[in-house]
């Protein structure tokens, strides 16, 4: 059974996140991003994190969801959808909750009530593993 909670450092962080990233963050950087985010939610199988979502925010009007990840062996079980539902609920007092995604993920987010919009980005891929 999968449980959902706010991130705490006591949870195990297995390998397998950031699939396909050429320069993925180390486990230490992964933990740091979870710890320093405005909100980090995790999906747990026992004490192991099998999915996570993090939020950055100004704490007043806006939130941004930079990452939603589920380990490959746990995909297609509704974990990402449940993490998103819990995040949207937890952030319901904010004016805006935004995210960017690849085109192939758009239907997933639309199924959760998010609307397509125009966005812009700049990426420093050589810094993908963290500063």
Automatic annotation (TrEMBL):
Coiled-coil boundaries: none
A Pfam match: Acetyltransf_1
Domain N-acetyltransferase as annotated: residue spans: 1-131
GO molecular function terms noted in the UniProt entry: acyltransferase activity, transferring groups other than amino-acyl groups
Alphabetized Gene3D superfamilies for the sequence: 3.40.630.30
PROSITE patterns named in the record: GNAT
Keywords from the UniProt entry: Transferase
Name under which the protein is recorded: Acetyltransferase (GNAT) family protein
């Amino acid at each position: 059974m999968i449980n959902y909670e706010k991130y705490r450092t006591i949870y195990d962080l297995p390998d397998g996140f950031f699939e396909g990233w050429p320069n993925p963050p180390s486990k230490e950087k992964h933990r740091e991003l979870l710890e320093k985010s405005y909100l980090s939610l995790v999906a747990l199988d026992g004490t192991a994190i099998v999915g996570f979502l993090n939020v950055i925010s100004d704490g007043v009007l806006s939130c941004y969801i930079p990452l939603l990840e589920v380990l490959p062996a746990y995909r297609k079980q509704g974990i990402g959808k449940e993490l998103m539902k819990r995040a949207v609920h937890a952030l319901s007092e904010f004016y805006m909750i935004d995210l960017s995604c690849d085109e192939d993920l758009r239907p997933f987010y639309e199924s959760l009530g998010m609307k397509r919009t125009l966005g812009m980005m700049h990426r420093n891929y050589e810094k993908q593993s963290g500063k």
